[in-house]
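Good morning,

Attaching, inline, the backbone tokens for the sequence recovery test we're adding to the shared suite. The designed sequence is right after.
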């Protein structure tokens, strides 16, 4: 990863700072609401931090806070930070995608409460928007795509340790999400007629492949914006 500094226009700085602030506030409020037992009887204050949703929200918030500090203080924003921003953005994209298209349909209408909207929709959308605002001033190499699998792989290891040691997640289960239930009828590479339908290893491979594809698409878009911006004549 290179540490080359990146220059931004005043407009970029203002827009990015606003988006970062919205991201951080939405994440904090969403986490606080999720931890309140009167609003969420399934998750306790401590248990919520065992989930990828909260962990990815914390990750992207920390990345945004660091970026916000650098922009406000006119510090050099490096391409190294941008790689972390890229990884955090893909991680929070996974959070939004999995909840919206895999978990929410299983939970029903009650899934879209205030805290879930904040942590699974507002934060991901803002983080993605900020990524493209920032990356239009530089070109991020495609070799960085491999880094996007680090957070989910670490979480799989974490959840696997929890499964083996009988940690209690929501509802007293020893796994956080149905697709990380190593003891399901589908097993590791099998299939079943009910959730999770396919084995845990299949789910992991599918989601990691999805992340790589999303990472590639994001870089194609951001690098295209950068190219167009460079070709655009100065006023």
């Amino acid at each position: 990863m290179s540490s080359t500094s990146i220059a931004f226009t005043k407009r970029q700085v203002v827009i990015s700072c606003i988006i970062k602030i919205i991201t951080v506030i939405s994440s904090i409020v969403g986490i606080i609401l999720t931890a309140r037992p009167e609003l969420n009887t399934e998750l306790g204050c401590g248990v919520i931090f065992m989930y990828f949703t909260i962990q990815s929200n914390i990750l992207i918030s920390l990345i945004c806070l660091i970026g916000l500090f650098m922009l406000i203080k006119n510090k050099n924003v490096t391409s190294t930070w941008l790689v972390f921003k890229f990884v955090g953005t893909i991680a929070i994209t996974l959070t939004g995608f999995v909840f919206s298209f895999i978990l929410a349909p299983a939970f029903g209408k009650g899934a879209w409460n205030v805290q879930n909207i904040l942590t699974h929709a507002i934060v991901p959308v803002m983080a993605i928007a900020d990524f493209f605002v920032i990356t239009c001033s530089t070109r991020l190499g495609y070799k960085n795509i491999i880094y996007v699998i680090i957070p989910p792989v670490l979480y799989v290891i974490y959840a696997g340790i929890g499964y083996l040691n009988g940690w209690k997640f929501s509802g007293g289960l020893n796994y956080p999400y149905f697709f990380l239930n190593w003891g399901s009828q589908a097993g590791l590479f099998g299939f079943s007629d009910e959730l999770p339908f396919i084995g845990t290893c299949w789910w992991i491979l599918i989601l990691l492949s999805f992340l790589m594809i999303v990472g590639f698409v994001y870089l194609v878009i951001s690098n295209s914006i950068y190219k167009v911006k460079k070709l655009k004549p100065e006023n």
